């Protein structure tokens, strides 16, 4: 959703857009460049799916032109595995030249020293690299490919010299398989030069992996979470102890988390501002609200209409006008934009001063 400071600087316009159900600006757009992946992660279904091939470079360059004209500030590249795109550097350079910050989430296994340098030189602003355990065999089990951990660490180190401090983050999806091993994750992060840790609760059970049970959550909080909090704060990898407890720390939040409702009931009371500021675009040009609901609903198809027409069209407008909360069942599982939504709600409805 991008930085709420951008909305604060243009608050009257944003407030009017929200009140009238009108489009604002797609400040942050996520682009799934490819659906395929070179790993077989147990918590993911990308590698299990058979899908159409991605669209060509020229299509994405035209899309970037459209996004820049609408005021997009950040383009996040993901997949599948985005480094499977051979022309990735060209697209990054094209977006960067138009003033759009380009970020990426990758498993890092394909980042050779030469590729890492080329991607950084093209203008990559920030990267999330997925590491699901500091223990190699546990990470490899999660990722479904032997040797994945070693290649990910190698890719991380290859990119580290070329990005500025503060721009390399580790993403870790927490499941029943890996949570016990994460107490030394801050140690690994420091050793390889990571700037941040992002702990992500697993959204839903898959045929291979399960979410943490209530007992697992309690065990994580009482043992692993407090160790991560202490080490990660000391190392500057997180800024607040709450970031080490993605399942919450109270009985009420545990009750929500055991059902996968990581928003902790927030969207029963408050709206999500994603329809005004964000979009997800998949590898064949289908536009959706966000990655919690890929293609559900499909708001538009870029093979038939421009992004501008979709962004300003009636399907998006209807979503912006709805007063039903939560807008979708998946909203209850989403903590991705929770902090930003709270900050925006405070901007629109500031608490009275004493």
Dominant shape = globular
Q: What does the oligomeric state look like here?
A: single chain
Report the major sheet.
Answer: 9 strands, mixed
The strands making up the biggest β-sheet line up spatially as 6-5-4-3-2-1-7-8-9
Mean pLDDT: 92
User: Roughly how many Å is the radius of gyration?
Assistant: 20 Å
> What is the CA-CA span between the terminal residues?
31 Å
Poorly predicted runs: none
**Which structural class do the helices and strands define?**
alpha/beta
* DSSP strand tally: 9
Report on this structure:
By secondary structure, the protein is an alpha/beta fold. The chain is built from 14 helices and 9 strands. The protein has helices at residues 4-8, 11-20, 57-69, 88-97, 113-122, 136-143, 148-159, 185-192, 214-235, 251-257, 274-277, 307-311, 314-321, 338-348; strands at residues 28-32, 74-78, 101-106, 126-130, 168-174, 196-201, 278-281, 286-288, 300-301. Strands 6-5-4-3-2-1-7-8-9 form a 9-stranded mixed beta sheet. A hairpin with a 4-residue loop joins strand 7 (278-281) and strand 8. Helix 4 packs parallel to helix 5. It is globular, with a radius of gyration of 20 Å. The two termini are 31 Å apart.
